[in-house]
Amino acid sequence: xxxxxxxxxxxxxxxxxxxxxGNLTLLEKPINIVAGNDFCTAKQAEYRKSSNxxxxxxxxxxxxxxxxxxxxxxxxxxxxxxxxxxxxxxxx
Length: 92
Known about the structure:
Layout: H1 2-8, H2 14-17, H3 29-35, H4 40-47, H5 53-56, H6 69-74, H7 85-91
Helix pairs in contact: 3-4
């Protein structure tokens, strides 16, 4: 997977990005144990299991009726189905 990072992000050193705030998210301990230190594409299934909407929204935004707390927060959030240096920079 590190090799994929280097190919997909040729000007970004993985070790410089892995602990940036933009690369971190809240995740419940049992889910985090399963997710481990794997790359984002492997963790996306675990993110969907989180009770924290901010974490779940990394994969996809949930569409809920108009003028709900979820629809209002979705106006300020963005899902990141592809993860790389640009996504981390944007979240950071």
